[in-house]
Amino acid sequence: MERWNTTKSAELYGVPEWSGGYFTIADSGEMMVLPAAGETGRAVSISQIAKGVKERGLDMPVLLRVENILDAQIATLNETFRQAMDELGYQGSFLGAYPIKVNQQQQVVEQITHFGSRYHHGLEAGSKAELIAAMGTMRDRKSVLICNGYKDEEFIDLGLYATKIGFTCILVVEMPDELPLILERSKELGAKPILGIRIKLASQASGHWAESGGDRSIFGLNTNQVIKAVDLLAQEGMLDCLQMVHYHLGSQISNIREIRSAVHEACQVYAGLAKEGAAVAYLDLGGGLAVDYDGSQSNFMSSRNYSINEYCTDIIEAVMTSLDEVGIQHPTIITESGRALVAYYSILLFNVLDVTRYRPDPLPEHLPDDCPAQINYMMETLEKLTIRNLQESFNDILFYRDEARHLFHHGKIDLRQRALAEQIFWTTITRISELSKELKHVTPELADLERVLSDIYYCNFSVFQSLPDAWAIGQLFPIMPIHRLNEEPTVNAVLADITCDCDGKIDQFIDRRGVRRFLPLHELKNSDEYLLGAFLVGAYQETLGDLHNLLGDTNVVTVRILDNGEFEFVNELEGDTVADVLSYVEYDPKRLFNSFRKTAERAVRAERITAQERKQIVQAYEAGLRGYTYFER
Ligand SMILES: *Cc1c(COP(=O)(O)O)cnc(C)c1O
């Protein structure tokens, strides 16, 4: 047999397809991260980073951020738009606005404004809290600050103040009733607003977030409401304030056709508003630029059937064809891409704690004499098994196994006999699965056996905290070992997390031809830590995560890859302690500690423990309170 190599690993895990050029496998079998797409000269080993993290005293799981990738993604989006505009002779310009909700962590938003400053990359806020975060972070007056979401008086006032101090702060009218309030507040505060209008599109996007676009979307004005808004503004002599048309089709739009038809429709509204006398100058297409999580380049939900190049080109072409026809100046195009900017730069690293195997133990040479008939039939089925009778043997073994279980229920066979029946059953199933691989055509039932026989790898993380979309909406993320990639992975496994919830598992994995039901992994070596990475987790996963089983935020480490190919730790953020998560659910850790101390004292008085033992026990309790919520070694 040909030896295993890293090329085979790359193919198996689909690395070149989903990596966006930021990840590759070194000959040493280590997963490498690159500071910019394709820059292999400065590749850094992720397991080396993990080692450095541990040496600094932080335990797994760790969320690793590589800030160069964020920088590179911002550059790619802006440069690609600029280039496409140059090539097509577009008269307007491009401005990005990062939607804070995609990852609100202060460090993330600060890094985006920092790296984005050379492109005047702005921010989008969907709530008061996000607006306040944005106003405290932004400094660049050439970038835009877009205000979406429901707006009360306070929200509107803050937006108007932002305009007053010089920000290009655009208040987007999402609901018909917002406009009168905005006009009233702007008179009161003596601040002229810059207004946008969020429109409902008939173009409907498919996928999970379909309802945020389309006629039934909860946000935005229909054409009738748009006209009423125009009339009100004209009546107030404020039509010149209406400068932007905005829509948001939804996130992770996999199909480029939907993106294109939405642009066309929005341009018609834009042209209509221009004709009505509005001073429109910005066209904001919202988010939706998808990430190809599974590398299939298809319109499958975890993928996209277009490149970023096509995305930019198609948008600009659509705007130009729509507006040139009616002789309207090209607007400044704004997009609110969030997912595509931040997904790539975070990796969740976690270790495997334990394994449950489904490979059966060897069978005894002879069955005991007193074996019930059913067990003998099972053994016969196993012995007669050939590639010709796979399906029939499968049916038989299931039948006898069920009978054996039935007999056990009724006390007709004992515990040892039942264990033997199960052992024969699994041996037969394993054999059937192996033989079925030699067949050209396999029935779905037999094809599924590989999944049924896969091992369970118990992993030190919480799906609910760190990969909530994997649980909530079946989102697929690339997950794979970050080392030993020059060894053949010989085990098929599904992953279980350390919550005690039966949903706390990952049993769907990326595959170019659909969804894989198990992940090829390596056998654990006794004492060596086996590390896995969940990739492309920078968007939406951090704050959507919850405290299921009181597993808290993980440690977060940010690294920067330097010009010489070395890396430095720029930031580390310790995850939640047990006391932290307890206080989130309204415990008072001090009170808990005191109460426990008293309980221990009563045990001393009752002579169940000595005073010295109490000291030890109380210390352990206190250390537990201060400790990490995850499994510590
Ligand atoms: C969520 C959201 C976005 C971000 O969409 P992505 O697909 O993550 O880029 C942009 N704009 C609005 C209004 C949103 O609600």
Note the topology.
Layout: H1 6-13, H2 15-18, E1 23-25, E2 31-33, E3 44-45, H3 46-55, E4 62-66, H4 67-88, E5 94-99, H5 106-116, E6 122-125, H6 128-137, E7 144-147, H7 153-164, E8 168-173, H8 178-189, E9 194-198, H9 223-235, E10 242-246, H10 256-276, E11 282-284, H11 308-325, E12 332-335, H12 339-342, E13 346-356, H13 373-384, H14 390-409, H15 415-436, H16 444-447, H17 449-452, E14 455-459, H18 463-466, H19 468-472, E15 479-481, E16 491-496, E17 505-506, E18 509-511, E19 514-516, E20 519-521, E21 531-534, H20 541-544, E22 555-561, E23 567-573, H21 578-584, H22 589-605, H23 611-626
Parallel strand pairs: 4-22, 5-6, 5-12, 6-7, 7-8, 8-9, 9-10, 10-11, 11-12, 14-16
Antiparallel strand pairs: 1-2, 2-3, 4-13, 13-14, 13-21, 15-21, 16-17, 16-20, 18-19, 22-23
Helix pairs in contact: 4-5, 4-11, 6-7, 7-8, 10-11, 13-14, 13-15, 14-15, 22-23
